[in-house]
Amino acid sequence: MTSQRRVISIQPGQPASDGAGVRLNRVIGGPGLERFDPFLMLDEFSTDNPDDYIAGFPPHPHRGFETITYMIEGRMRHEDHLGNVGLLGSGGVQWMTAARGIIHSEMPEQESGAMRGFQLWLNLPAKDKLGEAGYRDIPASEIPRINTASGVEVVVIAGEFDDGEIRQAGAVQRPHTQPQLFDLHLPAGSQVSPRLADGQRVMLYVYEGSLELPGANAQAAGAGRLVRLSDEGELHLTSAQGARVLLIAGTPLNEPIVQYGPFVMNSREEIEQALRDFRDGVLA
Ligand code: FE2
């Protein structure tokens, strides 16, 4: 019998403010919050108060990693120094490879109503940190949605979903870290068993309802909790009351990380270079 992935930790996020004063819940990578190689940060924004989001994220730089924004509800406008303009709408994803440098703004395209979604930061291997920047807007209509035999809806954003019955490639495939990013909607009493390669680091972020976790020390994780699982074994998730869960998995890079705000490199010298390049107008 194959073993199951164990629960290593269950932790809540922390309230934070970023950009020009956007209020959010930082789930990975804030003060006192661990990073989970290859993921550097996860923010959840979820509010129906425009004061929490209206200031947005005016122009700012990034270097050395990728940002993935998944909008559940609301509209955000992206503009960058390459001339890209994109409107991110409900259910859509923006996959931005900052690599050597990108300067962009992310501003809400609404003055009222709910704004709900996530931004995830995915590290790049050292050899790609100074590669060419790239940007993709993926509307909801281009992101595969499937229903498993047990009635679980899976939005396959990145990687490949495979439960032994259905296989579905996601909208995005990335080399090296091979990120798997699924939005799982479990109705009450359902279960789902996504297959993930041994060695992949796996996190579950429960953003609605609650989930019963695998393993001998079975326990439940409620909304707002990040669950880290061990890097090997099978995964069987059940939800008695129903849940919406972001499954985030990737192959660790095991490289040194030196971060200064929106720059994530492998050494202090490279961070100093990024700061000089930004100051001299040659970051991007
Ligand atoms: Fe940004």
Automatic annotation (TrEMBL):
Per UniProt, the ranges with Polar residues bias are 1-14
Does Lipoprotein show up as a keyword for this record? no
Cofactor(s) of this protein: Fe cation
Gene Ontology MF: a single term: metal ion binding
Is Iron a UniProt keyword of this protein?
yes
State the superkingdom.
Bacteria
Where does the Pirin C-terminal domain lie? 182-282
Where would I find the Pirin N-terminal domain in this sequence?
22-122
Pfam families attached to this UniProt entry: Pirin, Pirin_C
Q: Where is this region: Disordered?
A: 1-20
Note on how the cofactor is bound: Binds 1 Fe cation per subunit.
Report keywords, A-Z.
Iron, Metal-binding
What SUPFAM superfamilies has UniProt attached to this entry? RmlC-like cupins
Q: Identify the InterPro entries for this entry.
A: Pirin, Pirin_C_dom, Pirin_N_dom, RmlC-like_jellyroll, RmlC_Cupin_sf
Q: What positions does the entry give for Fe cation binding?
A: 60, 62, 104, 106
Q: Give the family this protein belongs to, as stated in its UniProt record.
A: Belongs to the pirin family.
Query: Which protein are we looking at?
Result: Quercetin 2,3-dioxygenase
- Which species expresses this protein natively? Ectopseudomonas composti
**What does UniProt list as this organism's lineage?**
Bacteria, Pseudomonadati, Pseudomonadota, Gammaproteobacteria, Pseudomonadales
